[in-house]
Amino acid sequence: MTYATAAFVGATGGAGTTRTTLEAAVVLAADGADVIVLDAAYATQGLGDYLSGRLDPDLTTLVTDRTDGPLDVGLVELDVDAPGEVACCPVDAPFERLARAKRVEAAQAFERRIEEAVAAADHVLVDVPPLAANQAVAATTACERVCLVSPGGDRGADATNRLRERVADVGATVDTVAVVEGSDERNAADILVPSTERPLPGALSDERYGRAVASLVSRLLDRDVTGVGGSGGLFSGVTERVRR
User: Fold this and answer.
1) What is the signed CA dihedral for 12, 216, 107, 170, rounded to 10 degrees?
2) 161: Cβ–Cβ under 8 A, 6 or more apart, which residues?
3) Coil, strand, or helix at residue 69?
4) In angstroms, rounded to a whole number, what is the distance separating the alpha carbons of residues 203 and 169?
5) Mind listing the UniProt keywords for this protein, alphabetically (predicted)?
6) How confident is the prediction along the chain (244 residues), in pLDDT tens digits per residue?
7) DSSP per residue over 134-187, as a string?
8) Fewer C-beta within 10 Å: the chain N or C terminus?
């Protein structure tokens, strides 16, 4: 069974969750899948840092003021030379709308956006912050699979243990733990993702990094993409365009 949806949940801020989510999406696209990435990390709005062009309407608009509009008006596509596509719905919002987007009714709208994305793509990945807000809980519980993304060392291990408990508290299950750019002396990680100096998509130009990301995707979604990562040139390059 191949899983369609996965929440990449940061065990702590700065764990590398956003990039890990995007690298996983690119590997899936290289394997022929169409992928939609949704941004639940409202506070940091980090997904938008990897995109260019007009980010309006953003995801918070689509779960508050424009809940009846289609998801695709907010998708920003990474234009990749691959069989599949990666389209992202980032957050780019003022504080007032961020506050409204964290309400219960907006979290319910987020769940509906995940359902809508599933109908339009092969896989839906969600960039999720540590579970402390309604939209993060909604994203985690609505997805079939949950990957905790953690830094290495004591800080990461302590954060992972706390987050495991929170995930259980909301009725979800941790399926994979990925430790990024660190050691795993205490974390009991399923996948170790090394650092890379390559820009996105590092998974397709850095062999060691690529093998780790591909292994993570294969384990998390039960889709064998291990022949994709680190292939050294599957992509001639990555540019960005806005799909409207």
Assistant:
1) -70
2) none
3) coil
4) 33
5) Cell cycle, Cell division
6) 799 999 999 999 889 999 999 999 999 999 999 999 999 999 999 999 999 888 999 999 999 999 999 999 999 988 777 899 999 999 999 999 999 999 999 999 999 999 999 999 999 999 999 999 999 999 999 999 999 999 888 778 888 999 999 999 999 999 999 999 865 555 578 999 999 999 999 998 899 999 999 999 999 999 999 887 554 444 333 333 333 3
7) HHHHHHHHHSSEEEEEEESHHHHHHHHHHHHHHHHHTT----EEEEESS--SSS
8) N
CA distance 206 to 2: 26
- Single-letter amino acid code for the residue at 201: P
Q: What CA–CA distance (Å, rounded) separates 105 from 101? A: 8
Q: What are phi and psi of 21, to 5 degrees?
A: -60, -45
Q: Are the C-beta atoms of residues 216 and 24 closer than 8 Å to each other?
A: yes
**For residue 79, what is the enclosing H or E element?**
strand 76-80
Q: Quick one: how far is CA 24 from the chain centroid?
A: 8
Question: How far apart, in whole angstroms, are the C-alpha atoms of residue 98 and residue 42?
Answer: 7
Q: Do residues 31 and 81 touch, judged by C-beta distance below 8 A?
A: no
What the chain holds in terms of domains, given with CATH numbers, is 5-242 (3.40.50.300)
3-state helix, strand, coil in the chain (%, to 5): 40, 20, 45
Neighbours of 233 (CB within 10 A): 9
Q: Are 6 and 220 in contact (CB under 8 A)?
A: yes
